[in-house]
Amino acid sequence: MYALKSLSVLKNVVRYSSYAMALSVCIGISASTASSTTDDNNGKESAWQQVEAQGANQDVYFYAWGGDPQINAYLQWAAKQVDDKYNINLVHVKLSDTSEAVSRVLAEKSANNDDQGSVDLIWINGANFATMSENSLLLEQWANKLPNFALTDPDNNPAVNFDFGVPTNGMEAPWGQASLTFYYDNLSVNAPPTTLNELTNWTKQNPGRFSYPKPPDFLGMSFLKYALVMLHEQHDADTGGDISAHLNTPVTAQNEAMVLNPLWDFLDEFHPTLWREGEQFVQTGAQMRRLVDDTELSLAFTFSAPEVPAAVQRYDLPQSIRSYAMSDGSLSNTHFVAIPYNASHPKAAQLVANFLMSPEAQAKKQTASIWGDKTVLVQSTLTPEQQDLFKTNKPHPSALPFDSIKRTVSEPHPSWVEAIMEGWQARYGVRP
After folding, report:
1. 20 to 30 Å CA-CA from 273: which of 61, 157, 422, 428?
2. What is the DSSP string of 101-139?
3. First vs last Cα of the chain: how many Å apart?
4. For residues 143 and 338, what is the distance between their CA atoms, to the nearest angstrom?
5. In sequence order, what are the residues at sequence separation of 6 or more whose Cβ sits closer than 8 angstroms to the Cβ of residue 29?
6. 162: left (phi over 0), alpha (psi -120 to 50) or beta
7. Are 211 and 282 in contact (CB under 8 A)?
């Protein structure tokens, strides 16, 4: 045990010695080039050089969902890259729910632990981001200063500056994009429904062949939000109204019933056509997928498109599965990484976040066999060599076809999640 402890101390000595040398080199370079560049450019270069020097040779504890083997393997690859580049030891702390990390930071703040937090980096978006932002739990104005952030074209791409409608204020670095993706068994379904209206007609003609996970499951909530958005878009188109605009603002006592009652009316008619007549619901997307494999369901959905070909390849779904996107709109969101206000290694976490936005890391992550997560980078900002990184071979037959998502719709304000969940549980959660 003593030998192991000594080895750990020695490793830290080497790391911090390297840090000191790197810092002195950085200062020397900054001083030597000060007269040969403009003040603005020199300031930017010097600031990032300081982050590189101060962030190298450290540990970064990355709190991220650990429920997907593909994602976990990707993070292992990323860990090796930042180790090679910066001698950073990236530790993936696997979560079953991001709220676990939020609760940890909240507890540390309550204990007045304001600079030695256990969470250095967190994979986050939506309600969890809103909670951390409202409670001043995140480091501000760092993500928009990362060199690779410019590759997201933030001036023309508002998705990287807003999280479920909430301004990020430089508290989050965009990491990837995901959309609601449907899949079906083409041996039992010839023409799958491509709009919410078509889906309701399809379930009437094919009773018991579709369902969704019950709230508070994330995937089930995603389906309910998709239905809510589509219902109001159609209503506004028919009446010239603007109820949809309320979805982008916080829920209030004045607008809750007006916005949610159409959803309850829809579900009252929709549920009897579902699996087990809507009297029972699966708990998770994995259970829904198993029902498709067991041929109890013919149609299902996921928020992670590469999950489908991965399941087919490991024989959790039949070879006859095909993926597609709804034509009326795919509920989509950007997911991010953030740094808690009390992170022990904030500079090192910035180096990791910047690498995760690099063309190399984004291209590998978008590869279907690796993860299939859509890049946050805008191709026009990349060099031809960087664009070549994103060219892929022929995808698996069950994979979502390239560019099949023709229209995306944004997530409602995070406060609507709680309102939908409570309303659903009150109406459908308890059965006699």
Report:
1. 422
2. HHHHHHHHHHTT--S-BS-SEEEE-THHHHHHHHTT-B-
3. 59
4. 8
5. 49
6. beta
7. yes
